[in-house]
Design a protein that fits this description.
Elements lengths: L1 E8 L24 H15 L3 E4 L9 H11 L6 E3 L18 H7 L13 E6 L2 E5 L19 H12 L5 E5 L15 H4 L6 H10 L4 E4 L6 E5 L2 E5 L9 E10 L2 E10 L9 H11 L2 H9 L7 H10 L3 H7 L11 H8 L17 E5 L12
Parallel strand pairs: 1-2, 2-3, 5-6, 6-7, 7-9
Antiparallel strand pairs: 1-10, 4-5, 8-9, 10-11, 11-12
Helix pairs in contact: 8-9
Family: Belongs to the cyclic nucleotide phosphodiesterase class-III family.
Protein name: Metallophosphoesterase
InterPro entries: Calcineurin-like_PHP, CNP_phosphodiesterase-III, Metallo-depent_PP-like, Pesterase_cyn
């Protein structure tokens, strides 16, 4: 066994300087802790020593230029490289405004953090000999520059990706983007609520990656700890720095002959100044704001409950989303009627036959990385 790389993943930072914080009583994000929580993580990463850090988008609260500038200045002080991709909160309108950045300005600002071509918001970088990173832009905009409801990879980006993959068939390649390309929730791609967090042309991406034997994607956006897999392709989505359970991941890639293994250990921010009981406070914060979400979930397909009935169950399920966000959840609500109970249990961390499969936080993944075949994109 040989260590190829040690790295970390921190997602959905939503960095907000104190004077920029939105004061909305219904917001899920505890952006008040974004800076002290990040500082705590960066101190830890400097102590343990890593080769690089991945940040899969939503770097700032809501596109604010001054929050981007603060983060760029802080990342520039680190002794290891950092790689970023834009999230939907990083560029809230294609052309920006006086307070927020455009997609072109985002690329210009983050030139030191992965971007090699100032004309395109995606990149390819060699991390180490034999190890590569492709950073994609999953932000899509309509003709007026307004953001799409879902993520999207435009045709030019997919064509560029084909060119990159064709030259990497003998290399281990990681892919990072903000929106999900695999489902992390039951029926996610068929649900209006779930589609919001996915790339709307996800099959066009995943087919290409599977054809090229790319084994790993790193994503964010959904604010949950989850590992999904499809035909040898793993997608590791990491929860948000500013919402329960305030996680981050430490990863170690090792070689075993011609095989690779990824060992993942997840950490949580337990407390920061002014928030001494962050975990408990944050879980309650999420539960207190869960009612509208649970009502939408229970009244939508496949349950289609009447609002009066859904209200009874929404209170019982106040900590349901916090359980999903924490990863490795096993749900059991015997007080619910059988139909609702069965549906809620489909969100548990189990195999199709119901066996617990707790791989969302701490796990070892053996990667299928057969190389040598000619890459033919599956369009």
């Amino acid at each position: 066994m040989a260590i190829l790389a040690r790295f970390a993943v921190v997602s959905d930072l939503h960095i907000a300087l104190p004077h920029t914080i939105w004061d909305s009583p219904s917001r899920f994000h505890l952006v008040e802790v974004s800076i002290p929580a990040l500082e705590q993580i960066l101190d830890h990463l400097e102590q343990v020593g890593i080769d690089f850090l991945l940040l899969p988008g939503d770097l700032v609260q809501h596109g604010e230029r001054e929050n981007h500038e603060w983060l760029i200045q802080r990342l520039g002080q680190l002794p290891f490289p950092v790689y970023v991709v834009p999230g939907n909160h990083d560029v809230v309108r294609r052309d920006g405004c006086d307070r927020t950045v455009s997609i072109d300005e985002f690329v210009h600002l983050y030139q030191a953090f992965g971007y090699t071509n100032p004309q395109q918001p995606y990149y390819h970088h060699q991390l180490k000999p034999g190890l590569h990173l492709i950073g994609l832009n999953s932000n899509g905009f309509d003709p007026n520059g307004e953001p799409l409801y879902t993520g999207c990879l435009d045709p030019a980006q997919l064509e560029w990706l084909d060119d990159q993959l064709a030259g990497l068939r003998d290399q281990l390649t990681l892919v990072m983007l903000h929106h999900n390309a695999l489902e992390h929730l039951p029926r996610q791609s068929g649900s209006r609520m779930g589609q919001r967090y996915m790339v709307n042309n996800a099959p066009e991406l995943t087919r290409r990656l599977q054809a090229a034997n790319v084994p790993l994607m790193f994503t964010g956006h959904l604010h949950v700890q989850d590992v999904a897999q499809a035909d040898g392709l793993y997608e590791i989505t990491t929860g948000s720095l500013v919402s329960y359970p305030h996680p981050y991941r430490l990863c170690e890639l090792t070689t075993h002959g011609s095989d690779y293994r990824l060992d993942i250990t997840s950490q949580r921010i337990e407390a920061v100044p002014d928030w001494p009981t962050l975990q408990a406070t944050s879980q309650k914060w999420m539960g207190d704001r869960s009612f509208p979400f649970m009502m939408k979930l229970l009244t939508s397909r496949p349950l289609h409950l009447e609002p009066t009935e859904a209200e009874q169950y929404a209170h019982i399920l106040r900590n349901f989303w916090a359980g999903i966000a924490g990863g490795d959840a096993l749900f059991d609500f015997p007080e619910l009627p059988p139909q609702v109970q069965r549906y809620i249990q489909t969100f548990s961390a189990t195999t199709p036959d119901g066996t617990p499969q707790c791989i969302d936080n701490n796990t070892s993944l053996w990667l299928q990385t057969a190389v040598g075949d000619e890459y033919v994109p599956k369009k």
